[in-house]
Amino acid sequence: MIESVISSLGISGFAVSMIALLVKIAIVFGVVMLHVAYATYFERKVIGHVQLRLGPMTVGPHGLLQPIADGIKSFFKEDIIPSGADRHVFKIAPVISVFAALGCLAVVPFFDGFVLANINIGLLYIFAMSSLSAYGIVMAGWSSNSKYSFLGGLRSTAQVISYEVALGLSLVGVMIMSESLNLTQIVEAQQKYWHGMFIIPQFLGAFVFMIAAFAETNRAPFDLPEAESELVAGFFVEYSGMRFALFYMAEYIGMLVMSSISVLCFAGGWTVPPFVINAFPSLAAVPGIVWFMLKIYFHVFVYYWIRSTLPRFRYDHLMALGWKVLIPLALLNIVITALIKYFC
Amino acid sequence: MPTQKEKLRKKELTINMGPQHPATHGVLRLELDIDGETVVKCTPHVGYLHRGTEKLGENRTYLSALPLTDRLDYISSMANNVGYCLAVERLFGIAAPERAKFIRTLASEMSRISSHLLWLGTHALDIGAMTVFLYAFKEREWILDLFEMLTGARLTVTYPRIGGVRNDVSEEFLSSLYKFTEEFPKNILEYETLIDQNRIWLQRTKNIGIITADEAINWGLTGPMLRGSGVDYDLRKYCPYDAYDQVEFDVPLGKNGDTYDRYRCRMEEMRQSIRIIRQCIEKLPQGPVMSPDAPKLTLPAKERILKDMEAMIQHFVLISKGPISAPIGEFYSAIEASKGELGFYFISDGTGKPYRMRLRSPSFIHASILPKLCEGSLVADVIANIGTIDIVLGECDR
């Protein structure tokens, strides 16, 4: 659609696809950033209501303009670099975090046919990118010249590396079932089954993935790197203004990316299970993007729900859970899936 | 020239936790030497909130030192007031009338609930369960409103007086308090639903910060810190003051002496406090609220001062010199405050001011066990340990 509009302007050849791609990137970037801003609002509202209070109410009706006010505030705040900090590393760390988080969006199909880069190793690419984001955290922790952020950085490295393994293994079952690493093909593969969602045959994998995704994005109850009661704010304790906001953005983009992988790999992406369509034929008219968004919103809501309910893990328990429970479970899932695939 | 290998040496990382730190409950400062995530050495530093309460007490009359005690354990100022008034009453050999005794008992238990609620909220918040904090604060707000109804103040009440209490309770207050005692047990269940059986909570509190019964006694611990280790010692029960000998209640005890047992102890204590408050409301006798047998200790009524010569002189003497009939000697009296045994020690030289006023504050003594609890544990457990000793720095530093 975008291509036809551009070629009607008299441009032709390679330039059409390039401009179309840039337009698409702009759309994705804009929509995701808006979601990130309102994810913070949504979080404060959800947690507020869980805790018998209202959340932000002052800026705009029901506090709707709060994210914009927050954005303006952090943009105009003084940018402080602590003395003794490694200035270059200090400056580049938040950029790496945001870059890695945004990079993941390139391979996420938002609905049928709308994906920035339809590459055949989509999942591997996402793993690579989300591992990169750990560098941002480590570098921030190291360069701040503060013991608290250093500890936060150390914790985060250990955590991200351990849970990366579980995260990767939990998706192998999905790869076996769909015989592809391309996210669009994974979604299409789910449509061939009656259930239309891999969460039913791959419940073990989905379970491991959910937990590992929480740890991977440093969200509660695995928010050890930024445990405010122990390490005050962890790796970004010395950051202020926009650099601090960049870390925040990276965390929320990461959360949205993890939710979208979960939706794409386990919940059928933009599709609805066939039996639901058979039961309510009128639902087929709903555009795919709506289903995709609804599923993501539900996921994000679960993130907030868990954050407001559970206490925080201790470092050694976290490691024990990752290595002794999640990885064996994920391996078991791979073996079972492979056996069924081979013999049936 | 030292070789490269000789230059490299292993050294613990020293971090300074506090005095500005969200989990140190005020201005406690811990100097931690950590090896990775393990604490090798822990040194508490106190004194950041020192306001010289003991010295101030020496320069004020027995009557006017009362508001200082509000600022000790500001979470349960009522218990401090009661402790101080009781100590002075015992020193002068008088007693509050029955009705005042019941009102004090009831008010002390209210402050125990409010203190335990704050402890529960912050302890859970430190461990990461932040919803408990707001749930607990909802009910704490209710108690503070009740305090306001009773005394006119929410936090620093200065309600008890030497020889009684300042004003009588109203029927309206009693009925709202009774309503609170009916509702509150349901709220305790609500907090317990959130954390009591939660696996993460159990992992974070069970077998963390174990204190055996012998250790607890040797370190001089009191209150829930001692009872969590299974030592049956409660001044309310075994050395009753005010109306505690006329109400029935149990003393909850722990078994293992770990953080979880102390948590259970305090939760049960809140239930027992509700029991005590109910009995106090039901048994509240009629009569005066200020002792009539202490004319030399209590200020006369304002109308009398304006009309009666005697009363005016008494007022003048009490304000300028203080109660001058104090017996000479040393004297110690203690009560069971929400954090432990709160003791007042006076050396009296017969003037209206104590020669020396010394406070035995449970928080100070409990802070001394922190190194024992923390050394060898993880950084995350330091937070759980600070939470479990339920420290208030106002009382610790005095």
Helix content of chain B: 40-55%
Helix content of chain A: 55-70%
Radius of gyration of chain B: 23 Å
Low-confidence stretches of chain B: none
For the sheet with most strands of chain B, the description reads:
3 strands, antiparallel
Helix-strand category of chain B = mainly alpha
Count of runs of 4 or more consecutive helical residues of chain B: 18
The SSE string of chain A, one letter per element, is: HHHHHHHHHHHH
Quaternary: heterodimer
What is the rounded distance between the termini of chain A? 42 Å
Q: Largest beta sheet of chain A, briefly? A: none
Overall pLDDT level of chain A: 84
Order of strands, widest sheet of chain B: 1-2-3
What is the arithmetic mean of pLDDT of chain B?
85
Which range does the strand content of chain B fall in?
5-15%
Question: Distance between termini of chain B?
Answer: 53 Å
Q: Which short descriptors sum up this protein?
A:
heterodimer; A: 344 residues; mainly alpha; 12 helices; globular; B: 398 residues; 3-stranded antiparallel sheet; 18 helices
Describe the protein.
The complex is a heterodimer of chains A (344) and B (398). Chain A has 344 residues and is mostly helical. Chain A has twelve helices and no strands. In chain A, helix 2 (14-50) packs across helix 3 (66-76), helix 3 (66-76) packs across helix 9 (241-266) and helix 4 (87-103) packs parallel to helix 9. Chain A is globular and about 60 Å long. Chain B is built from 18 helices and eight strands. Chain B has helices at residues 4-7, 53-58, 66-70, 77-92, 98-127, 130-151, 171-195, 199-205, 213-218, 224-227, 235-238, 259-283, 302-307, 309-320, 362-367, 370-374, 379-388, 393-397; strands spanning 13-17, 29-35, 38-45, 160-161, 164-165, 329-336, 341-348, 354-360. In chain B, the strands form three sheets. Chain B has a three-stranded antiparallel beta sheet with strand order 1-2-3. Chain B has a three-stranded antiparallel beta sheet with strand order 6-7-8. Chain B has a two-stranded antiparallel ribbon with strand order 4-5. In chain B, a hairpin with a 2-residue loop joins strand 2 (29-35) and strand 3. The radius of gyration of chain B is 23 Å and the shape is globular. The relative contact order of chain B is 0.19.
